[in-house]
Amino acid sequence: MTITVPTDVADLRNLVGGEWVSAAASERLDDVDPATGDVLARVPLSNAADVDAAVAAARAALPAWRATSPLLRARALMRLRDELTAHREEIAELVTLDMGKTLPDASAEVGRGIESVEAATAIPHLLKGENLEGVAGGLDVEMVRQPVGVVGAITPFNFPAMIPLWFLPFAIGCGNTFVLKPSEQDPRPSQRIAELIAGIEEIPPGVVNLVHGGRGAVEALLDHPGVDAISFVGSAKTARIIASRAAQTGKRVQALGGAKNSMVVMPDADPKLTASGVLGSAFGAAGQRCLAGSVAVLVGSEAEQQRNLDLIVDAARELRVGAGIAAETDVCPLVSVGARERVEAEIEAALAEGAELALDGRRDGGGAGAELGPTVLDRLPEGSRALREELFGPVLAIKRVPDLAAAIAWSNESRYGNSAIIFTESGGAAREFRYSIEAGMVGVNVGVAAPIAWFPFSGWKDSIDGDLHANGTDAVEFYTRKKVVTSRWA
Ligand code: NAD
């Protein structure tokens, strides 16, 4: 496959009411390829005036879009699905260049985004209301769903194509208009998706708008009276800021946050499933997934724990670290040199606390300096950040426990509850785990309990602020207001 790296560095533009406009803000940020250090684009850090223009365009487009039949809106989504499918590998290349992950991983990400569009094409069915005839003499009651209005979406760097597509198709399918503020670290996949949307006649100008930027643009969206709902994905710290500020300005909000996901390995676990599942989960995308299993909870006697640790470490040693564009790469660079330095500092801190290095990836650096090899930390003291907090790098912490009850109890002490995995050949253990574990996404013998667009996706506890998850019928709940009409006719 030929990869085209642009030689001229583009100043990205915002999409406002169907026009590509330069941001009024003068500040720019470099969008850097983490594998090479090359600057790929300059990202405008849009200000309140830029956000205001996008929101005004979204509000102007709302009445006509709301009045468009759900059938026609579904057909518009079918066109979007076709465009994304035709450009899937091109968008995947942009994901790899901007964010760093491997091409197969990037292509899978775009595929999952397309699935969200496919799920949202069922919108005429999903929007149907309820009714009850004759609740009293001659009195009928019906519930109809109407769009919330203008939706603002704020998305993270680690899935720059998929996460905007968790929100966009359901939001506009329900008759809302949309303003996307993608991550300022890797915005070109969103930019390309917006370009494709701008070319789809069935999606009129202003229905989907794009504003590049960072914190300032987010705050302007949160404070804007013309924005009715906010969909957010990012770290737990930012999620809390977003949810509080949205609540203060009376907006509906769903804010999906960070994670610390346990992978419980029982003594009877199948070695092949366990090794591939744990490795893919902990080190895929260099650990930069909200579903990354970042603690392996090894269950059993000391000998059983050690056997499974050896299994994981021996397999991890074989993983190849390198650029996401290279076919042989298993573990890609982190999103930036700064991110690699931050994760290495976390490893140093764990070692200073007394952790043992079962595998040291710190010398696997290369490329432009954002690479870090798989690292496994054992014998961490309880309370260590590496055991309890999200490091967002290729670092697997080991927790040793005697039995399943202890594994579940320890995992449930986490403030997060995004995902939890069990590897076992026992149906009874798996059932007990799925019943008792406090997590939104649970995997049995799979390393990553990935989003399936027809089901709601999110965690529990500090992994979400808000009630309704992304995707599935939760998306329709979030993007619609329910109206109950009671009628009597003479
Ligand atoms: P982040 O919180 O730094 O940024 C997310 C978005 O918020 C970006 O668009 C950014 O511009 C904006 N932002 C950052 N700080 C802000 C502030 N102080 N005020 C207002 N806006 C701000 O997250 P990230 O580093 O881009 O993404 C990684 C995080 O996202 C990880 O914690 C990961 O677990 C989480 N994540 C969660 C899910 C999920 O479904 N729960 C999915 C993917 C990623």
Keywords:
Aldehyde Dehydrogenase, Chain A, domain 1, 6-stranded mixed β-sheet, alpha/beta, 490 residues, 16 helices, Aldehyde Dehydrogenase, Chain A, domain 2, 7-stranded mixed β-sheet, binds nicotinamide-adenine-dinucleotide
Structural notes for this entry:
This protein is about 40% helix and about 20% strand. With about 500 residues, the chain is an alpha/beta fold. The chain has two domains: about 270 residues, Aldehyde Dehydrogenase, Chain A, domain 1 (3-Layer(aba) Sandwich), CATH 3.40.605.10; about 180 residues, Aldehyde Dehydrogenase, Chain A, domain 2. It has a seven-stranded mixed sheet with strand order 15-16-17-14-13-19-20, with helices on both faces. Helix 3 runs antiparallel to helix 7. The longest helix is centred in the N-terminal third of the chain and has 20 residues. About 55% of the residues are buried. Nicotinamide-adenine-dinucleotide (NAD) binds next to helix 8 and helix 9.
Mean pLDDT: 97
CA-based gyration radius? 23 Å
- Distance N terminus to C terminus? 71 Å
Bound molecules: nicotinamide-adenine-dinucleotide
Which architecture of the largest domain per CATH?
Answer: 3-Layer(aba) Sandwich
The biggest sheet amounts to: 7 strands, mixed
Count helical runs. 16
Strand order of the largest sheet: 15-16-17-14-13-19-20
β-strand number: 23
Structural class: alpha/beta
What is the fold-level CATH name, i.e. the topology of the largest domain? Aldehyde Dehydrogenase, Chain A, domain 1
How much β-strand is present in the residues? 15-25%
Helix content: 25-40%
Stretches where pLDDT is under 50 for at least 5 consecutive residues are 1-7
Count structural domains.
2
The dominant shape is: globular
CATH class of the largest domain: Alpha Beta
